[in-house]
Amino acid sequence: LLTDKVNSNSVLIGEHLFAMGINVSRVTTVGDSLPEMTAVFSDALNRSDIIISTGGLGPTFDDLTRQAVSQVTGRALKEDTVVLETIRGFFARRKAAMPENNRLQAQVLEGAEVLNNPNGTAPGQLLEFPDSKHDNKKKLVALLPGPPREMLPMLEAIAGRLKPFSGILQKRFVLRITGIGESLVEEKLRPVLEAERKLESGVVNFGIVASHDMIIDMKATVSGTDEMEIDETIKNIKKEFRDILGDHVFGEGRQTLEGAVGELLSHKKQTLALAESCTGGMVAARITNQPGSSAYFLEGIVTYSNTAKERLLKVNPETILAHGAVSQQTAVEMAEGVRSISGADYAMSITGIAGPGGGTAEKPVGLVYIGLVSPAIKEVFKYQFSGTRGDIRTRAANTALDILRRYLLNPKGR
Amino acid sequence: LLTDKVNSNSVLIGEHLFAMGINVSRVTTVGDSLPEMTAVFSDALNRSDIIISTGGLGPTFDDLTRQAVSQVTGRALKEDTVVLETIRGFFARRKAAMPENNRLQAQVLEGAEVLNNPNGTAPGQLLEFPDSKHDNKKKLVALLPGPPREMLPMLEAIAGRLKPFSGILQKRFVLRITGIGESLVEEKLRPVLEAERKLESGVVNFGIVASHDMIIDMKATVSGTDEMEIDETIKNIKKEFRDILGDHVFGEGRQTLEGAVGELLSHKKQTLALAESCTGGMVAARITNQPGSSAYFLEGIVTYSNTAKERLLKVNPETILAHGAVSQQTAVEMAEGVRSISGADYAMSITGIAGPGGGTAEKPVGLVYIGLVSPAIKEVFKYQFSGTRGDIRTRAANTALDILRRYLLNPKGR
């Protein structure tokens, strides 16, 4: 099926090209059909200066990229003896004979440069030829393999060849925001978005992307010809955004909530322990996904049963009896329990009903209590999340991380 | 940036259409540029019977899908008073006034049917018109919103309208495989793949997709005109694959390792407890992502520090001193500890070096011990995983789940 997998290569390639000042105008995904592929390549050659294709360089009958480009460019395919030896070598290092099929991967387009593949058998190919419509311009066609770990090194290897196509200067930033709705973000930022940022020589574009995990990305792209002006503009917009949104901004670029929490804990040299029920270890798994988290994360206890809450976290059985496992009282005792057992500076607890079953009129699916305990604080926050079991768990985990983050940022203000 | 996010709608739509016997020939992603968009729509109208677009129906200046389709089809856009009232109602239910911007979403193409949007403000639109090149054929253009939860109900609503375009019958299956390499899977299945499956009236296509988390999907698509023949063929191929691969097959379709483990534990009415170090709660988080997991999952203990291993899991400090926290001996004591504390039937432990720091010549990054303890078994498995911190953690988690799964399937054979 053509649509079996999402196309993650386009994201990787788009980022590389953007940083070079080259914009992607179109991404097309096409099946393993020679007529379809030649139609796409021929259309792309008409429209674009650079064509980067990924995939279809494998050793089987349905790997047709080489043939399609050969047809469209009129360049013959010939077996390259050096490439063939390289492929044989790849198998020899794995103590295997090269299957006869793989011979197909040694077929190189006439005049193409071969791009080495340290992570696989399919070499890439790079074609450069004069643009028939413009005297001084060239066109570039790159055939790269599909797996990202094979594709990316080649993309880096041809960076120098892409450089001449680089247009305007452009830079961008992404602010990561949580704890506030998309429409409110837009409303608060509107004065900045609407203030026409007249650069001497460029434009500013904004974009806002909200996801179902309650994280919002506010993006800005600034392009022009004057790098100093671009840098200054980015600095100013970022500051205005941050002034307006305050600590709803938890980071830039690819920062995560667990990353922000980890940096704050590291910086303050403080430690954390967790008692999770409905999130079942998700918060611990995310915290420990950070390299170096052993410096601040002591332990996590996932108590799915009531007896585990009593036995491991010293929750009073009478508390559960009187108020239920999903209650403010149980949340406090869970957090206090894991804090006293671990000796951590901060302890958090999460108990809720993730669904789809287990809800009642009084305690519906999505009800979640999050407890935070430190020497200076003892608080429980109550939420009613919506969505699937997965949504509720992710929202509870993100909210818990954000509560801790904001408390670490500003212990007195809360 | 056009390439900021992966296009997950194409996967969702492709699956829906496949099940109806309609194949997707091309997926194009294009930026918010009117000339680019009209070029794509006009090309698509030339080539295809059905065009489904997602996104660009929002209320802002860069939502251009309506305009692009209007230009290409020559149909004017007019404000629809019923749609306008529906949008006002959407805001009224949220006790908000409709921002003036949203008026744009009431613009409907001449002759288009409006598709209701219960989950957002942007209605979908459906255009049907005669194919100018074929007397008895029609073309269909659907404008759907970008967010999947808004898009999917509309896709289901227009299923009846897509039906007349349905071609051949086709069915498919996916077998999910782990614990064996891709090349070995291919080698073992080759006799089945190569045996030409001559159907009276159809074809069989195979595909194999390996991912970096050590799970392999073996797919087969059977298409033809005779449904009984298709069903029989699928049944036979599936059986042949399963006979060859045995318990390396952990499920079909969207089955997960934690789903397979959960079903086995449920079925046997047995319980599980976990002691995780390097995976930091990932296995517990995945196990508890299954609805109903509270029936078989008792508790998980994430011990990142040595003292937590000693205190919570009763690991002997001398064991850690003599052999280290990442050792066969510690893995055994972690699993025994959590089993005796929880009273679970099965207990697993995972301790390893996820990196990027912390490795030594003797115990390199990627070294992981996985322990499994039950009344009948006490085993530790040693692995050397490669990849990033995330890869190593995911591989360790998948491997632990698979060890348990295979042990539950066949307790005596191991």
SSE diagram, text form:
The structure is a homodimer.
Chain A: H1 9-19, E1 26-30, H2 34-47, E2 50-54, H3 65-73, E3 77-79, H4 81-93, E4 107-109, E5 113-115, E6 124-130, E7 138-144, H5 148-157, H6 159-162, E8 169-178, H7 182-194, E9 202-210, E10 215-224, H8 227-245, E11 249-252, H9 257-268, E12 272-276, H10 282-287, E13 297-303, H11 306-313, H12 317-323, H13 328-342, E14 346-352, E15 367-374, E16 377-384, H14 389-409
Parallel strand pairs in A: 2-7, 12-13, 12-14
Antiparallel strand pairs in A: 3-4, 5-6, 6-7, 8-10, 8-11, 9-10, 14-15, 15-16
Helix pairs in contact in A: 1-5, 2-3, 7-8, 9-14
Helix content of chain A: 25-40%
Total count of strands of chain A? 16
Percentage of residues in strands of chain A: 15-25%
Compressed to H and E, one letter per element, the order of chain A equals: HEHEHEHEEEEHHEHEEHEHEHEHHHEEEH
Over the alpha carbons, how many angstroms does the gyration radius of chain A reach? Answer: 28 Å
Mean residue pLDDT of chain A: 91
Q: Structural class, from secondary structure content of chain A? A: alpha+beta
Give unreliable regions of chain A as ranges: none
Head-to-tail CA distance between termini of chain A: 52 Å
Strand order of the largest sheet of chain A: 13-12-14-15-16
Largest sheet of chain A: 5 strands, mixed
- Oligomeric state of this protein: homodimer
Overall 3D form of chain A = globular
Q: In DSSP terms, counting alpha (H) and pi (I) runs of 4 or more, how many helices of chain A?
A: 14
Please give the most extensive interface between any two protein chains, plus how many residues each contributes. Answer: A-B, 72 and 72 residues
